Amino acid sequence: MNPVIDIHGLSFSYGSVPTLSGIDLQVTEGEFLGIVGPNAGGKSTLLKLILGLLKPQSGRIEVLGRTPCAASRLLGYVPQYPSFPRDFPISVEQVVQLGRLGLAGKGAQRDGKRHALWPGRVSSADREAVRSALDEVEAGDIAKRQIGSLSGGQLQRVLLARALAGEPRILILDEPTANIDQRMEGEIFDLLEALNARLTILVVSHDVAFISRYVGRVACINRTLVCHNTDAIDGNVIQDLYGEPVRMIAHSHSH
Amino acid sequence: MDFFSALSQHAFLQTAVAAALLSSIGCGVMGTYVVVKRIAFIAGGIAHSVLGGMGAAVYFGFEPLHGALPAAIAAALLIGWVRLNWRVQEDTLISALWAIGMAVGVLFIAKAPGYQADMMSYLFGNILLVPRESLWFMVALDFILLAIVGAYHRQFLAVVFDEEFARLRGVPVGFFYLLLLVLVAVTVVLLIQVVGLILVLALLTLPAAVAGHYVHSLGRMMLIATLLGAVLSIAGLALSYGPDLPAGPTIILLVGGVYVLSAMMAQILDRRRARLAAALGARQGGPGE
User: Fold this and answer.
1) A34 at B interface, C-beta within 8 A
2) A108 contacts chain B (CB < 8 A)
3) pLDDT tens digits, residue range A75-87?
4) Are A146 and B36 in contact (CB < 8 Å)?
């Protein structure tokens, strides 16, 4: 089977210091991949390269058999920090509706290029998709609320709904639980586990112990990339990655 | 003399009121985008560089307004291009364009042959001198503005709300950002006739900012800002008429006063709401959401 994300010899640097070098990564359809690594290790940069928001200096990225830019409409992205002001006058429903932009209407082919330039209103199919995306993340009851009035966990669900509204084939999340408490973290990951039944998922996290209960494989990034199956993760792997011994915390209690 | 009885007699006053109404549409619609996207500084840069175009038009013997529109659009495209491609020191570059545009305008006007145009009326506007023919020009600008915003309001919302996400959805962000700035430029030209290019920034942003104190969607902000702009500019005109004050500064003082009062009131309302919520939470004895 062809990988849905295929990366060969990828290198990227912002300035003179390389952020990523010689990255090889293949993600197969239906996979739930965790990406971990120290701060400034290049996790978010790798996501941005896959999304086509950054261009690599060398190497090749193919997403769903096309260039990252051409594939970006088939990806659902949940950023680490919302890139909008929290006091923006917009409702939850309207935020999720923006996820429908760039999507071809019924009967049209899936290459939504035209739709993003197409003037006009929100269709009934759009409304339907927005409602089901909000229901799926259990945020249907806050559809009319202003985004400024949401808690961190609620906002995270809304951003996930916005990503789902675009009917993505791959879901890409950057530290989706960095700003919320542990109970919510469990809820969000339970949700992702359910979504994994129909979507390929890439999730960046700083908490390797926590995510290894959910993901099938962990990519460890610290400028270079090493993959591990989650059952093989132990203290040595983490020590290699972070460069110093990290105390592993048994995570057997339920959240 | 009573403004409203004068209004029924004097054609120039009727023209002035029509100009105020026509410009308030641009003020409400584009002012809302300027406020939520926080590009008042860019709008200021566009407004002030317009003097370069007006000066050049005067120098070469055209109507100043006919120089204002191309100058505003050129300034919008230049500033937008700087912002999109040259993010370093964006504010410095915009201030440079701001000042250079004005300097060019002042030099052209100083060297304009023959009749020296009254620079004060470009800088501070004179709504009473708006020629009747300009009304059709303003109608056309309003029409273009509403047509484009009506057709592309989803794309504009995507771009002003979250550029990165809009780009991922395949929206040509650079194109819509520049289009937005061009429409801001068109609005600036509309408003310059009412209050002049120095004061235009207040009329562009303050009615939308006041609306933003009370309503929380772009559409409603646009509607209320338009109504507010219309009411306040006509009220300013009426207030200035009796004591024979310049209309532009009177309108701006009125708009500014309303904004300050509204900002204070919004603050008080917010505090009271927070107090009530806290009291309610305490009575229920549990944490709120």
Assistant:
1) no
2) no
3) 999 998 888 888 8
4) no
Question: Mean pLDDT throughout B182-204?
Answer: 89
Q: Does residue A253 lie in a domain region?
A: no
Enter the ipTM: 0.84
**CA pair distance A161, A91, nearest whole angstrom:** 13
Domain that includes residue B10, residue range: 3-284
In chain B, DSSP finds a helix count (H) and a strand count (E) of 11, 0
- Residue B266 CA to residue A21 CA, distance in Å, equals 52
Do A53 and B166 make contact, defined as CB atoms within 8 angstroms? no
pLDDT at position A187: 85
Average predicted confidence (pLDDT) for chain B: 88
User: Is this prediction's pTM over 0.95?
Assistant: no
User: How many domains is chain A built from?
Assistant: 1
Q: What angle do CA B64, B70, B74 make, to 5 degrees?
A: 135
Number of domains forming the structure of chain B: 1
Of all residues in chain A, the one with the smallest CA distance to B216 is: A89
CA dihedral sign, ordered B14, B18, B259, B42 = negative
Residue A169 domain-assigned (yes or no): yes
Give chain A's mean pLDDT.
82
Pairing of strands A75-78, A18-27: unpaired
For B175, nearest residue in chain A (alpha carbons): A117
CATH code (residue B78) = 1.10.3470.10
